[in-house]
Amino acid sequence: MADLHDTPLPWSTRLWFAFACFFRVLFDPGFAARAWQAREAVAALPPAGPPEPARLEPARDGAAPPRPAAAEAAKAAPKEPAPAAPAVSSALQLLALLQREGRLVDFLEQDIASFGDADVGVAARMVHEGCRKALRGHAKLAPVRGEDEGARVTLEAGYDPAEVKLIGNVSGSAPYRGVLRHRGWRAVDLSLPTPIAGHDASVIAPAEVEL
Predict the structure, then answer these.
(1) pLDDT of 14-58, one tens digit each?
(2) What is d(CA 22, CA 36) in angstroms, rounded to the nearest whole number?
């Protein structure tokens, strides 16, 4: 089981992952439910204590004390190369476009708890219009499934689980017969502006100073 207290991810990876999770949570109810359950499970875990020191048996007849089995196994096991950090420049570019056209970051960072529903609705409509313009101008998306939502579908053996996620009461093996609740989305093409020399992709929106 993976250790929940591993070395923290770098800032760029966390930004890319948060950006990806935002849209999954917003448009994928099943993913949002699992993320919420994982959040509650992590919150319920007890704090990790210091590791128990290895116990060594006393040496006999002047022999060197035996090494712990875990240390021997760790020394003998080949070290796997660390996974390369994902490229985040394209994600940051798209986020900058969503901010420029729809003020997405401003909207998400704004505390709207004190706003009325009407005010939130007006702001959400403006953000939606701008972000939709940016997304359609630089990304081409297509549904994963061609059927209408609500239609009955059959998944034969060998279907791609990356394209279709089973929800509800899942049991047995394919073929599966159910109701299409979400058609899914597939990125067909992504066309982003070529950054100029010296461009800092981490600056999503420059500060503005009026003179």
Answers:
(1) 666 776 677 676 666 777 777 777 766 665 666 655 656 655 555
(2) 13
36: Cα separation from own chain's centroid: 13
The pLDDT score that the predictor gives to residue 98 is: 96
| 60: Cα separation from own chain's centroid | 54
Express each pLDDT in 73-103 by its tens digit: 666 666 777 776 667 888 999 999 999 999 9
The CA radius of gyration of the chain, in Å to the nearest whole number, is 25
Q: How far apart are CA 134 and CA 99, in angstroms?
A: 9
Query: What does the alpha-carbon distance between residue 117 and residue 121 come to, in Å, rounded to a whole number?
Result: 6
DSSP letter string, 16-84 = HHHHHHHHHHHH-HHHHHHHHHHHHHHHHSPPPPPPPPPP-PPPSTTPPPPPPHHHHHHHHSPPPPPPP
Q: What does the DSSP 8-state code read for residue 14?
A: H
Integer Cα distance of 102 and 134 in angstroms: 8
User: Is the bond leading into 51 cis (omega within 30 degrees of zero)?
Assistant: no
Determine how many CB atoms are found less than 10 A away from the CB of residue 32. 14
Alpha carbon 161 to chain centroid distance? 18
Which of 139 and 46 is assigned the larger pLDDT? Answer: 139
